[in-house]
Write a structure and sequence with these properties.
alpha+beta, Alpha-Beta Plaits, four-stranded antiparallel β-sheet, 5 helices, elongated
Amino acid sequence: MDRTSVVGDTIDYLKELTERIKTLKEEIGATTPEELNLLSTAKNLSSGSNDEMMPTMRNSTKFDVEKRADGDTRIEICCAANPGALLSTVGALEVLGLEIEQCVLSCFGDFGMQASCSQEGKRQVISADDIKQALYRSAGYGGRCL
């Protein structure tokens, strides 16, 4: 695209966002006081002016592993973001002989991963709890997870 097209698309997008803001403001006018309080809290969090509330509003640490009847394994992780979280998680799965078939990652705020894995070759079947413990350790939590 040339610069003129990019600027034109940007202007159209800004107009669309302005219309969405107007619509949302109209919807807010019909809300209850409790809903307004919740909206103002969310606004403060998004603007960064209320950092002391952030830890309580963030996702809790979660390591879920589900072995499915078809032999696949579903993995869901949500934990504090740290450098190398993705690399250590993928490495732990490789060591366990699990091959990632499909994966969705999120590194916005916390580290989040949802993956569907299958076991490589004819290796010994690994329990969901063993996979969970390996992922927990690879994320830097050490010890056993709850």
